[in-house]
Specification:
Elements (H helix, E strand, L loop, with lengths): L3 E2 L4 E2 L5 E5 L2 H11 L6 E5 L2 E5 L3 H20 L5 E3 L4 E3 L3 E3 L3 E4 L22 E6 L16 E6 L2 E8 L2 E4 L8 H11 L5 H15 L1
Parallel strand pairs: 10-11
Antiparallel strand pairs: 1-2, 3-5, 4-5, 6-9, 7-8, 9-10, 11-12, 12-13
Length: 209
């Protein structure tokens, strides 16, 4: 597949990342052109627009990591709301599309909402990103002040938490040993289906009680 960017058509080969110079209005035009398509993904930073066509492993890893988070939250009997796909945007500043977002502490602020106002509503408590093509930058989340961000990169889970005005690598504020759990699940994913992995995780957590 060739890369095609026209007023009527946007096509990128899987795994491709394309950086364009452009402003907020250009980003809005491209976003409207893409509509609800899941590919390519689009991101806006001041003065530039990035397009990325995910590989197949991106979608599977995103689904698996989100399922793991849901199982852990259910195990803790924690209320939450999750969103995917979701576009987070602040006019003239930023536009990003995390793979998954979870409202955990702030679930009451968004429950039942059909649209989130990123200038007035609280940010998600947890965002998840799969980075296969070096498209993700933790600083993209700074304008939104997302408290915790998980980035899966090179089959390793990186956990960032917001401290003052920057993100630092640390442990999750919600789940103990989550990196070890994710690593085990990723190893199993080489030979087992997502359903088998999730069943194993539920049994494992039940055995820890």
């Amino acid at each position: 597949m060739d890369t095609v960017i026209t007023p009527k058509r946007i096509e990128l080969p899987p795994g491709a990342v394309l950086k364009l110079l452009g402003g907020w209005k250009d980003y809005q035009v491209l976003s409207q052109q893409l509509g609800d398509r899941s590919s390519p993904r689009i991101k806006y930073r001041r003065g530039e627009i990035l397009l990325m066509a995910p590989l197949a492993e991106h979608g599977r890893d995103a689904s698996l990591l989100a399922d793991i988070a849901k199982v852990l939250l259910d195990h803790l009997e924690q209320k939450y709301d999750s969103f995917t796909p979701i576009t987070m945007s602040l006019p003239e500043i930023s536009g990003i599309e995390p793979d998954y977002c979870f409202y955990i502490e702030n679930w009451r602020a968004v429950v039942g909402k059909k649209r989130i106002d990123w200038e007035s509503d609280p940010p998600p408590d947890l965002a998840i990103e799969i980075d296969v093509t070096s498209y993700t930058d933790i600083n993209d989340f700074l304008p939104y002040r997302v408290p915790e961000v998980w980035i899966l990169k090179s089959h390793q889970l990186l956990i960032y938490r917001l401290q003052a005005e920057s993100y630092v690598l640390t442990e999750s504020s919600y789940f103990t040993n989550v990196r070890e759990i994710v690593q085990q699940c990723l190893q199993m994913a080489n030979e087992q289906t997502t359903s088998e992995i999730i069943r194993w995780l539920k049994n494992f957590l039940h055995g820890q009680q």
